Hints:
alpha+beta, 3-stranded mixed beta sheet, about 10% strand, globular, binds iron/sulfur cluster
Amino acid sequence: xxxxxxxxxxxxxxxxxxxxxxxxxxxxxxxxxxxxxxxxxxxxxxxxxxxxxxxxxxxxxxxxxxxxxxxxxxxxxxxxxxxxxxxxxxxxxxxxxxxxxxxxxxxxxxxxxxxxxxxxxxxxxxxxxxxxxxxxxxxxxxxxxxxxxxxxxxxxxxxxxxxxxxxxxxxxxxxxxxxxxxxxxxxxxxxxxxxxxxxxxxxxxxxxxxxxxxxxxxxxxxxxxx
Length: 226
Ligand code: SF4
Ligand code: SF4
């Protein structure tokens, strides 16, 4: 995994392994996962991960050195895997992205007309959610069988960009307008999650911008706020 994706797991862990609301299914999978990272020599044009305060969160992290790999060990579990290798002294380089996000400008601008403008071309397709490594919102479905005496309960990934995401009994929709939904996604990433876990939910991977069918770029919009 790349540094952004490893940090996305850290966001998931903070939420799903929170002792107050621990998710036993997530925990079960997570404890059997070894986190192996690989460095980005050249971040892509949509990446802005160096604006997002990412940290090391891996068991092993590989740096491609041409003839060999330098492996940074991040845990005892990782150490067990490489304990037979020789020590090597190396200071890994910092990632430098061309794209940056100026977060300070955005917090006071909930009512800024920029959000209306930004969402004008949004199709509410949900692609930005389904590609995002930190989007975790889900819905729960009960599927009874024909006898109505048994069935299965599934948890399915959902998208806050869909109109019925906030639909409640009685048919009321809390975020009826596209602008409200798009803005919610961005404020969840950069404010609401931070209020609980003291870090941004966005890891700066740029996937939601690169693969949005209408190329909606929230980073550019925030940077433009005066
Ligand atoms: S991918 Fe783009 S068009 Fe689709 S919901 Fe997200 S912002 Fe809107
Ligand atoms: S850049 Fe977009 S896809 Fe990547 S973590 Fe941030 S919100 Fe999610």
